Amino acid sequence: MELTYWILLMLAVVYVPIYVWVWRSPTAKKYGLVKYGPCIMIKTRLGTSLMERWSKYKRFWRLFGIFSITVSFCLMVFIVYILIIGLLNLPTSLNSSGLGIEYALAIPGINPLMSGKFFWYAILGLFVAMVIHELAHGFQTRANDMRVDSTGALYGVVPLGAFVEPNEEDIGKSTRRAKLDLYSAGITTNFLGAITAFFIFAVLMMGGISSDFGDNTAVYKVTGDSPALEAGIPASAIILTVDGQAYYYNGTNTVDFAPGSLVSVEYITESSRDTPISTTIQWGVFIENVTGGSPADGKLMRNTFIRSITIDGEKTQFYDMAEFLSFMKTTSPGDVAAIEYVGRGNDNSSIDSSSKTETITLGNNGGIGYIGVSTTTSGMRLTTPNVTLEIGRNPIYGADGIVGVGRSLISYITGPMIGYSPIPSGAQWWFDVPLGGAFWIIVSAFYWIFWLNVMLGVSNAIPAIPFDGGFIFQGGLSAILERLKMKDEKKREELVSRITGSFSMIMIFVLIVVIAVAVIPR
């Protein structure tokens, strides 16, 4: 069992008697400890003096309120866009295996993204994100002359969150504008925190680094039961030559061997930078899986190599997955493709070089041709150090148009799921950086502060009560109806309450469906 799980187990053992004592003993309240479901609220007055001092600048907080409402509205649109994309992708998501329930829990040590070597980064990021979020609520509470009853933390084995508790009576008496300032402050402060952290790690720290192997082909991942695994090529290797020729992962290669042939590969690793390693491997577009019910089902087989595709008499050869995927974008549904393939050899030592050809009518994959195979390059996910660096520091890298920018932003914030936080740890040796390992520790710390501020800010912008976005939606809707000459306040607020309640139920239902489909194992 990993050290993290031992620590969590010990914390759970300690937590149970504390929880029972808080539940049973009236003395606990004297210390500000209150049972809250299965958790413990730790009520304090921490930060209230700071709120008192900083909230005196009322003009600043009024301007910040206007800015906050604008930012919160934009993030609200963004999260609704993400949920719509999630709904549209449900058919595709249902065909893939779920991530696992633990990915839905934003708890360090339990969520795999926040465990292991990322545990302490996640703790730091959560702490910063929660503290600045709640402080912002407190500043606006006091700036709008509402009282703060308490501040503190929510605890359950591990810290689960922080809170600022405004006086409910004061909130009820406050103006709509004051409430909007209050609820939008936390979201916007997380947004500003994310921008600041991003500027530090992506611009100041990673903006000037480079790699001696910038455009070399590099191995990002090696899949199981693949030719690359058998050949002993590790993830994070830099490939120098293939069949004695320089090989670049950008479609400009002029190699002269047949795709799927047995070739020699020369590569280096972090521990053998000055001593290249040679091995033999069957090189080409390797079919890892065939999707059931797809055009390829029953015609192509896994563990084979695609050599070429001929459409309308024009033959195209492929040496790697990038070339194959790039070609598929030029095809159309209904195209008749003659696919030439060759079998996989035994132990990378011999192959059956005689090829076979299957004719397939391409299906539809978002307007382009669809075969129905999952491929790699001989079992490797390839990239280059320069591409990896851009993916890690540029959220809109490769984006084309407004829709492309939106998709790139969504893709960027899912980086930790594919190891980009912001550079995969195994790939960090590709780059020349000052301070050695300390550089990447600092970069990772600011990346996680960025990422968790984004997560906390965007998730709170969901236009559904009890999220902050739900109260902002409620206040905004009330303002719109008032401008539409609905002057009877009682009727207006009743209508606003009904619409907000219904809309909240819809949004929460959509959120649960999208998350459930993403995480429930199938």
Describe this structure in words.
A hairpin with a 1-residue loop joins strand 3 and strand 4. Helix 4 crosses helix 8, helix 4 crosses helix 15 and helix 8 runs antiparallel to helix 13. The longest helix is centred in the N-terminal third of the chain and has 31 residues. The protein has 15 helices and 18 strands. The mean pLDDT is 87. The strands form four sheets. Strands 5, 6, 7, 8, 9 and 18 form a six-stranded antiparallel β-sheet that branches. Strands 10, 11, 12, 13, 14 and 17 form a six-stranded antiparallel β-sheet that branches. The chain has a four-stranded antiparallel β-sheet with strand order 1-2-3-4. The relative contact order is 0.13. The chain is elongated, with a radius of gyration of 28 Å. With 522 residues, the chain is α+β, with helices and mostly antiparallel strands.
- Count the DSSP helices: 15
* Largest pleated sheet: 6 strands, antiparallel
> Which structural class is indicated by helix and strand composition?
alpha+beta
- How confident is the prediction overall: mean pLDDT? 87
- Helical proportion? 40-55%
Short structural summary:
By secondary structure, the chain is of the alpha+beta class.
Give a quick set of tags describing it:
about 525 residues, alpha+beta, six-stranded antiparallel beta sheet, 15 helices, about 45% helix, elongated
Describe the protein's topology.
Layout: H1 3-24, H2 27-30, E1 33-36, E2 39-44, H3 48-54, H4 58-88, H5 90-94, H6 119-143, E3 148-156, E4 158-166, H7 168-173, H8 176-205, E5 217-222, H9 227-231, E6 238-242, E7 245-246, E8 261-268, E9 277-283, E10 285-290, E11 304-311, E12 314-317, H10 321-328, E13 336-343, E14 356-361, E15 363-365, E16 368-370, E17 373-377, E18 380-383, H11 385-393, H12 401-413, H13 437-460, H14 468-483, H15 489-519
Helix pairs in contact: 3-6, 4-8, 4-15, 6-8, 6-13, 8-13, 8-14, 14-15
